[in-house]
Amino acid sequence: MKLLVTGGAGFIGSHLLEYLNAQHAHETVVFDNLSSGSAKNVLANMKLCVGDVCDEAAVDALFAAEHFDAVIHFAAQTMVPYSLQHPQEDCNVNLLGLINILECCRKYNVKSVVFSSSAAVYGDNPNIPLTEDLPLLPTSCYGITKMTSEHYMRVYHDLYGINCTVLRFANVYGERQGEGGEGGVISIFCKLLVQNKPLTVFGNGEQTRDFVYAGDIAQAAAKAVALTGYNVINISTGKETSLNSLLDAFKSACGHELTVNYAPARSGDIFRSVLSNKKLEALLGFVPQMDIEHGIPKTYNDYLARRKEGL
Ligand SMILES: NC(=O)c1ccc[n+]([C@@H]2O[C@H](COP(=O)([O-])OP(=O)(O)OC[C@H]3O[C@@H](n4cnc5c(N)ncnc54)[C@H](O)[C@@H]3O)[C@@H](O)[C@H]2O)c1
Predict the structure, then answer these.
(1) Whole-model pTM?
(2) Nearest partner of 156 among 64, 73, 229, 65, judged by Cα
């Protein structure tokens, strides 16, 4: 099978490329404008085409030349605060970029598309664990473009019969994580720790998030290529992890006590967040395996190594 991975040079994309490489299952082509990704993340036996998903002619030329069977679409504007400051750009990359990909899938008879959506589509819904059937009420421009993308996926399935699977990622972390994306607290803690700076926790540290390892996201995305029909699936651990437990994992990773300042809780921050992964288990026969006790040391050590290399 010939597979296109857009955004494959990025953080989660790099984990997907590693997984695909280990599976030897597909011939993989990466399309990425390298705005936040790195060519180093693309493995030697994979083809990197540098280009922008917003460039309709470039995307068309790519599909005309390569004859893909399936697409995993990760390329996106990924920063929530940035989406509020630059809503036009967020819309352009996340919606027009997706439309360019879907139009080529229709035109060139691609069988299956997997799309990286986000828990941001749920907004501040307190009905945890969040299930895929809940109403969507995003609270950011990023959340709106992800929600609207899901509708495009549904309509391209319904009208053109393309197998379209939407994956809603929880809070993703892991090696090669950038500092600007959705990852939030884990990359902030890594950065402060390597600088020997104190960590600040807003509130009592008992607030929870669903931290899912990028390698597990990669496996789910690769398996989702085989699904038929239109599917919307949370990719999550289904477990709440408190910031205090996260601090414990960082303490083990660093091998020393942490200096933590507890500041007043910020208004607007949601206290508990977790996504159900029952549908993931039912449809893909898989649930994320990595726990934070193992995943945080990997992430921290990778951050440390990259810092030393000046990256
Ligand atoms: N990291 C998270 O916690 C998280 C959570 C939910 C959803 N997601 C989604 O997962 C996907 C991957 O995110 P990531 O965290 O790996 O981010 P990332 O920034 O590391 O990866 C995005 C990749 O897309 C490329 N890209 C950006 N704009 C492009 C364009 N116009 N044309 C071509 N390539 C472009 C970048 O160079 C980069 O390689 C995104 O769709 C993101 O919205 C991420």
Answers:
(1) 0.97
(2) 229
